[in-house]
Design a protein that fits this description.
It is a single chain. The protein has 258 residues and is α/β, with parallel strands linked by helices. The protein has helices at residues 41-48, 71-75, 93-98, 113-125, 141-154, 171-186, 199-204, 222-225, 228-235; strands spanning 3-12, 15-25, 30-34, 54-61, 64-65, 78-81, 159-162, 190-194, 207-212, 215-220, 239-245, 251-257. The strands form three sheets. It has a six-stranded mixed beta sheet with strand order 6-7-8-3-9-10, with helices on both faces. A hairpin with a 5-residue loop joins strand 11 (239-245) and strand 12 (251-257). The model has no long low-confidence stretch (mean pLDDT 89).
């Protein structure tokens, strides 16, 4: 297992928000984390990233407890793509992506030509190298999300954590992000992402974690977890899951609120 979460409990100050969360992921797996607002999805991500201290349980990466791993070494193992950023200075896209190489640099050193080449290659992998010289503050929301993913790729970490990567994006960009996540997993990256769209896990996820009130409702594959019974229990609304076939004759599942 590349990532093991064992009875993880924690939150803010003295208040635990998530309780006894356990699951494990292998290399190249995609985990979707679902649940209503306030159920602890983002807090769980912050605990795994070690942004918040856990009060109980363990986070193990490559058989090592992250409590024993330095911040710099942890950055070589796990990277984070936030839902939104606070970048206001008009850096170029290439400069933003190159910042992902920080964990590879020695103190007081600056990025080398090789670091910029690595950054450009990350843009090329996501098919957005045409944005390299554009000002980050002047590109679209969908383009910004792809740039943040490219910056995370520059860390060269095996685990990528994304907080609602498709939030606020149009259909085209949502689909593009899903395809990017799937491609990264095929290249042996392990992906964790939160979402409010139950149909997304049916498209790409190998595992799903359904949460409510800071605890696990069920962990498993999408067909096991995303059932009418469990979704209605968590979201407190009547839900129907229908099966259709798309124009390629591929079966798809869609969640509807009745």
């Amino acid at each position: 297992m590349i990532l093991e979460i064992d009875n993880l409990t924690g939150g803010y100050k003295k208040k635990n928000i998530v309780h006894n969360i356990s699951f494990a992921l292998d290399e190249g797996e995609i985990l979707s984390i679902l649940g209503p607002n306030g159920c602890g999805k983002t807090t769980l991500l912050k605990l795994i990233l070690h942004f918040l201290p856990n009060t109980n349980g363990k986070i193990i990466i490559n058989n090592e407890n992250i409590a024993k791993i330095s911040a710099k070494d942890l950055a070589n193992l796990i990277s984070y793509i936030p839902q939104k950023d606070s970048i206001t200075f008009p850096y170029t896209v290439l400069e933003i992506v190159t910042m992902g190489r920080t964990n590879q640099l020695k103190p007081f050193s600056i990025p080398s030509p090789g670091d910029f080449e690595f950054a450009y290659n990350s843009l090329s992998k996501l098919k957005i190298s045409n944005l390299a010289d554009k000002k980050y503050t002047r590109i679209s929301g969908g383009e910004k999300q792809l740039v943040l993913i490219a910056r995370a790729l520059c860390q060269n970490a095996k685990i990528l954590i994304m907080d609602e990567p498709t939030a606020g994006l149009d259909f085209s960009n949502q689909q593009h992000i899903m395809e990017v996540i799937e491609h990264l997993a095929q290249n042996k990256k392990t992906i964790l992402f939160t979402t409010h769209h139950p149909q997304e896990p049916f498209l790409i996820s190998t595992k799903v974690l359904l949460m409510s009130h800071g605890s696990v409702v069920k962990f498993g594959n999408a067909n096991e977890v995303l059932t009418t019974e469990l979704l209605e229990k968590v979201y407190k609304v009547p839900i129907e899951i229908i099966k259709i076939k798309d124009k390629y004759n591929k079966e798809r599942r869609i969640c509807l609120i009745n």
